[in-house]
Amino acid sequence: MRHNALVTPPPPRPTPPAAAGSRLAVDGGGPTAEMFRARLVRWWPDLLEGLVDLYGPERAPALGERLVDLAEEAYAARSPGLHSRDLERMLAPHWLQDPSMVGYAAYTERFAGNLAGLVDQIPYLRELGVRYLHLMPLLRPRDGDNDGGYAVADYRSVRPDLGTMDDLAELATELHEAGISLTLDLVLNHVAREHDWAVRARAGDPAYREYFHVFPDRQLPDAYERTLPEVFPDFAPGNFTWDDELDGWVWTTFNEWQWDVNWANPEVLVEYAQIILELANRGVDVLRLDAIAFMWKRMGTDCQGEPEVHSITQVLKALTRIVCPSVAFKAEAIVAPTKLLPYLGTGVHTGKVSDLAYHNSLMVQIWSMLAARDVRLAAHALGNLPPKPLAATWLTYVRCHDDIGWAIMDEDAAAVGLGGHAHRSFLARWYAGEFPGSPGRGLVFQYNPATDDRRTSGAAASLIGLEAAEESGDTAAIALTADALRLAHALIYGWGGVPVIWSGDELGQPNDPHWADEPGHEEDNRWAHRPRLDRARAAERHTPGTVAHRVFTDLVHLGEARAALPHLHAGVETHIGPVDDPGILVTVRDHPIGRFVGLHNVTAQRRTWPGHRAHEYGVAESVDHLSGAALEWDAGGNIVLEPYAVRWLTTP
Ligand code: GLC
Q1: How far apart are CA 331 and CA 293, in angstroms?
Q2: 339-379: per-residue pLDDT in tens?
Q3: Is the Cβ atom of 187 under 6 angstroms away from ligand 1?
Q4: Which atom of ligand 1 is nearest to the CA of 253?
Q5: What would the pLDDT profile of 543-562 be if each residue is shown by its tens digit?
Q6: Contact 150 CB / ligand 1 (< 6 Å)
Q7: Is CATH 3.90.400.10 the right assignment for the domain spanning 196-260?
Q8: Closest CA to 369 of 487, 495, 505, 481
Q9: Cβ of 506 below 6 Å from ligand 1
Q10: One CATH from 2.60.40.1180, 3.30.450.40, 3.40.630.30, 2.60.40.10 for 574-650
Q11: For residues 368 and 69, what is the distance between their CA atoms, to the nearest angstrom?
């Protein structure tokens, strides 16, 4: 293990005397009407404004009142512990931006069996430095195939094999005590065909038919289809599904059993407002707003990211700020980089929508740099992203439960002399191991012959070549690919934001070879990279010489180094430094405390970074905060970087 005397995690925060404040407590303290009023006065304008945008000035005030009634009820029902959490977070509004935040994402059953089992895994998460846990959809889905739980049949109960709502609340309490925040998915673009609303719609209840987008014939669906893309062209082509019982075409962006709900109907908003407050009162800290881009439909557009999406989020955000301000929103918007920022709040919605969003572009560029062994495209694309809103935070990741869509923009590719399509196709083929020299073991996901687009499934270790190296037993190849994996993780830990590890990647676990065996999964190879946590491998994390030990230790160490560097607070923007060597990506973060410079050699060769740059940036004297070692210089006065080396430097 690399040891670094300089990197000591911050000491535990001192706690005040236990009895302090007890003389002030009236009726044991707890929530007050005054607090509720104060928050309401503060956030009512946001709430009303959003409702006016969505439903017009006539309907908005009455709707607002209904929402405030719900808010009051939820506030009264909220537990004292959660009210305290709200207060703590109001005093630390940047909690998600703290450099000590490290995230982990997993399917409950694949990681720990069930919710009770998860409590037993808390020490494992703590060992990894985790402070944010995203549990994949666990509310009761439809039976049979349910898109990994993204087809919810009941938002008010937990999947029976995982436990109950009480188990969920219990888990949240345990996580909170361990300093870990709980993230759950809120699937709000669609419900399962088996959800009660859909059942009632099919039974002929006109009020519930209005919860969905239903069309008697193909006229409007055909008109919409002219500008709509397909999300799952392979197994769910088209965006509408005929339903005999409904006697109509229903909008189904994803699978035919995932019915898009109609947010133009305010009753839908009221329903979800209630669901959100209930989940918040169970102790959920972050709601991942699934497929948020698709929530509003407009003829002649791709029906993604319409302005109303942000008004909806604004209303829901205002509501949580009144009832449960410790709750944050994460936007799952996997859209072009230029279209992403509105989800974090721009223009009239600044500071009023989601707190977190996936940095999809960084993820794609990491893989692109590693395949091409060249940083020029990444430097151009990442360097030209507009800055994110100040209070917002990136969720950075090497990969997640979904496939990797090769979101390289044609303009960016052209700017560095590449063809966009050719490069996307290269990446998909590289990671599928179709190129000579590629050690990748990924799988092609959703090949679309019409556009020749390919997406990629695969665990990080399989994509990067660690699986192939481990299988061959070649220790040099294992070390080199593990170095590459460490570099990928250093980029997400060193960017600013919440780096999230996908379960299994912390052990270098490869693709699940049996992914297709489970009924309903045969056609969806994303299951290859959602493996059950390999317990034997997990046990090896303490055994030097194993892949598990190497990768796990690297991550623990990155987390510790990160927590000790205030420069990595997510409020600060990452800039890209000049490309002096196409094999080295330079990141620069100017924090008021000083400058941080990250050096990343994305190649398998030794490279050098010009000494004059080190002086220009004021980091020539810096030690590397990852190794604790001084920089290595060559005879020409340049800084030496071994294959896949990373250096975290700061000004004095
Ligand atoms: C999101 C999820 C994905 C799911 C889709 C439909 O994109 O990440 O796994 O298939 O939404 O709910």
Answers
A1: 9
A2: 899 999 999 999 999 999 999 999 999 999 999 999 999 99
A3: yes
A4: 6
A5: 999 999 999 999 999 999 99
A6: yes
A7: yes
A8: 487
A9: no
A10: 2.60.40.1180
A11: 50
